[in-house]
Amino acid sequence: MRSIGALVLTAMATAGIATPQGRPVDWPSAGGDARRTGWAKSDVRITRDNVKDFQLVLKSKIDGPAPGSKALTPPVVIGLLISYKGFKELGFVYGNSGDLWAIDLDLNRPFWKTKLNAPAQGGPECASLATVPALTPPAVFGRRPGGPRPAGGAAAATPRPTLPARLGGGGFGGSRSVYVLAGDGTLHMVNSSDGSDQFPALKFLPANTKPASLLMTDNTVYAMTTGGCGGVANAIYAIDLAQEETSPVSFPLAGTDPNGTGGFAVGNDGTVYIQTGSGVSDPASGKWGNALLALSSKKVEQKDYFLLPKSAARKNPALNVTTPVVFEFKGRDVIATASPDGRIVLLDSKSLGGADHKTPLAQTPVIASSQGGITGGLSTWEDADGARWLAAPVWGALNSAFKPAAANGAAPNGSIVAFRVEEKDGKVVLVPAWASRDLRSPVAPVITSGALFALSTAGQATLYGLDAATGKELYSTGNQVTVPASLTGLTLANGRVFFTTTDNTLYGFGIFMEI
């Protein structure tokens, strides 16, 4: 039997053969990264020209979860694992049954399955949500994995601190932990090679709560609870795994119920951003309805806040709540989120809303009609020319006064709308670029190489490939899926786009891997 060292050397020597179109990439969390951008920067297998050639490349029935719109997650992906069965690209899917599956994405079959424990109790609504697992993000030259940028843009010269064993290993192609939340609130670090617990589970959340997000960045795991399940008030939690003796900390979200798909985003400096649900904001008493909060890294203590504008005309205020997205623009972090009046607002990370906490950096016109809204999450990317874009999923018709530069047909049920982020006369502006074809209950899109992928979830789920510059349709899965899609999001990795459906099936559409 070859040694692990020999396997690694072989992997490095043959990486070009195993992946002729580029080194495999990971998709480590909901939204693809801590900023929740939905952007795969380096998926060289996909181009705008070959989207038309997409095919069904994976269909896997997952047994166990109680069917529902949030019963099964899309996969987080390790692009290359050197396992005891050879090179593997694995997708990790979690269900509300408390089961975690590793799917061999190349061979279209299960690799292993493990049950963590019984799912959360407390009624159907509290037990109906599966939380997307998380991986340690891949290392980026000059910064810690997923962590803040070093000062001056260069790696710090100070020696690295000694970290606990649970944060070691996992080098090129090696096994590493898949972070998963169990129904009893414990955080499991599951071995990606065989599904065993690599380390003892850690007490993280109260039992029987409903977690809505999980993220690992800068050696810290974050999660959020919603729905007031288990008799516990909603909160955002953090646990610093770099500490030998770990102890979770939390920030209460009293009087509100956040419901963005990804929950929250983490900026390049480690600041945590979260949009709260409908309710009344009273900073003096710690009530945070209709607000965007900035919390400190690791300790989740309040740093700043923005009070979102309200609208009495909205028929369903829960629709205009999204997971924020963070992007760099002109040397600073900018946060984008939806507002209750059906707009998108941009906020400056240095001061979210000025002295009155109500003044945005920029905002769009009202996008959604009063019957609909922007929901779930936003996405952002840069095109080949370096221009910054932002896209939002809209449920229901667009506001009749909203006129993007390009339309792609009537869209009475929903659509994706896209904006260019520009600077004019020294001010940041959002320029409406295009609106997509009609979509039913779309989720936040994913983007790579000039192509944007949008999922129409209601009725018969349909995945569309669109030109990211114009919204023009390049590809559609047509009638290949006959049931609704889950509302848990999309994954894009290594030439394929993945999603799950309400009958607990994992689908992958894309470019077949070259052998």
Automatic annotation (TrEMBL):
- Please, which domain of life does this record's source organism belong to? Bacteria
Q: Which InterPro entries match?
A: PQQ_rpt_dom, Quinoprotein_ADH-like_sf, WD40/YVTN_repeat-like_dom_sf
Query: Matching Pfam families, A to Z?
Result: PQQ_2
Which regions form coiled coils?
Answer: none
The Pyrrolo-quinoline quinone repeat domain, residue ranges:
421-509
Q: Which SUPFAM superfamilies match?
A: Quinoprotein alcohol dehydrogenase-like
Protein name from the UniProt record: PQQ-binding-like beta-propeller repeat protein
